[in-house]
Amino acid sequence: MKIKFISNCKDNNYKHLFIDNNVILDNLMKNSLCLEIDKYEKLYFTISDLKYYFLITKGTIRISKIYNNGAKFTFIFLKEYDLFGKFGEIKKNNSSLIYELEALENTYLLKISIIRIFNKIDQEKTKTLYKKLIFALNKRLIRNNMLMEILTHRNIKNRLISFLLYLALYFGSLSKLGIIINLNLSHSTIAEILCSTRVTITRYIKSLEKRQYIKYLKKNIIIINPILLTQYKNL
């Protein structure tokens, strides 16, 4: 596992997107660690990490739950400037539950010790920081719920199309060819996320390509026409 602790995260402009109070920001930086995680490397969280928040300063990650029987369930993808941590789903009587973080590209995380920060700032600034944290985590929760709804589709075709549209919304960029999903996900990985098989996912993806709803550019999926793709899902 290649995880490095470094003195400074790349692109410090992220700080102004999260905290606009200099006193809080200074304390945040003094009581945080910066981690660099190589592409496809993994980091594991247990109940002991509940006291930390993590801010992605560069990169993209996938977070999954690993259950006692070894089953893995992906419940969110996060990107630059997203905040996560304080996993409320973990109960003290279920300390064996593990969260797996996988870097989908070279990623930089800021590991924030909230307790230390609260001990060093006054009550008014503590309220300000709480509001910022709640706002940031609420954004993550909305995205989390969207993915959960997608996974409830019984029809695997609809599940796949909804997942591709979800990725296009949060990780897509416009081009002349359509919306490029800026994630490199294999058919096996998509199958694992959607609780299906690689053979089934490959069959449906080829069908979508044949209908010219999507296409591949190198290893990235392009949504050629999201409106037609949505209409096809509803057929």
Automatic annotation (TrEMBL):
Residues annotated as domain HTH crp-type: 154-227
Domain of life: Eukaryota
Stored Gene3D superfamilies: Jelly Rolls, Winged helix-like DNA-binding domain superfamily/Winged helix DNA-binding domain
GO BP: any one term: regulation of DNA-templated transcription
GO molecular function: DNA binding
UniProt-listed PROSITE patterns: HTH_CRP_2 (PS51063)
Keywords noted in UniProt: DNA-binding, Membrane, Plastid, Transcription, Transcription regulation, Transmembrane, Transmembrane helix
Regions crossing the membrane: 163-185
The protein's name in its UniProt record: NtcA-like transcriptional regulator
Source organism per UniProt: Galdieria sulphuraria (Red alga)
Gene transcribed to yield this protein: ntcA
